[in-house]
Request: fold
Amino acid sequence: MKSTKSFARIASTLLCLTVFAAASFAKNHPLNQPSGLAVASNGDLYVANEGGNEILVYAPSYSQIAGKTITQGINSPTAVAFDPQGNLWVGNLIQSETQDEYLSEYSSAGKQINPAISVSNFETFYPTLAVDGVGDAWILGVYKGQDCVFAVNAPNAYPTGLIDTLYIQTGNYTAVAARGPWVAFGTLTNASWELTGAVLTNYTQGYFGSSESEPSGVVAMTFDANFMLYVAAQNGFGDTGIQFINVPAGGAPINNITLNYVPSGMAADSVHERLYVANSNTNQIQVYSTTTFQLLTTIQ
Reply:
């Protein structure tokens, strides 16, 4: 009996120490300009913590996982995305005169597995990295003063980095999302979703919350595992809302969530039916239900 009680006390002490250590780590690694978001297959949330020069990881319980934080090869990360093999790709912004962008690849264990792919003279100020079903990485921004889209062809097949300029050269692109064969681009005036290499359809939508015919400027996009596309758009009055679009069915946008800020990144978790929305101004991530469209909690 005595040994059983002693074991219970030891177990309780270890649990308290673990909780304390996790809380202490989170305190020392707070959200600091959270930008791009991505959800792993197990439901863990990966956050490009731009101001902290790190990738933070949160469990589905919203607690930060200390052992999964990534710092190696990270420099002002603005975007994160998973490829079909479960590897994590990170878009880093080098703070220099040229504002060069480079990509880093990490295994599920958080270890860097390929040399960084550098894109010289490429400027990006949005969380714009997406990886499609064949492993091609898509980035948008400005190259030598010109709006453009870059495709990094099958990064796993070409770890040294084969960079191609995509056929789309202009258009004020501000967001990109990819899932399976689908790649979606958002612009200042519309959202278009495309099959790789072929335009499927193009929509121009007015802002959902206004009777005015104001153009809708896309500020963030993400797909869930069921190919539902989530589009955060802002109207000419500065109001922001999130539309849900069933891309394979070609349905009209469903208007469900209104925000009082411009999101710096989004990610959808189909298993837990959640939508994560980052706010770099307040250093928070809001979590919404994709079934009730209500705010579930705020990570801060």
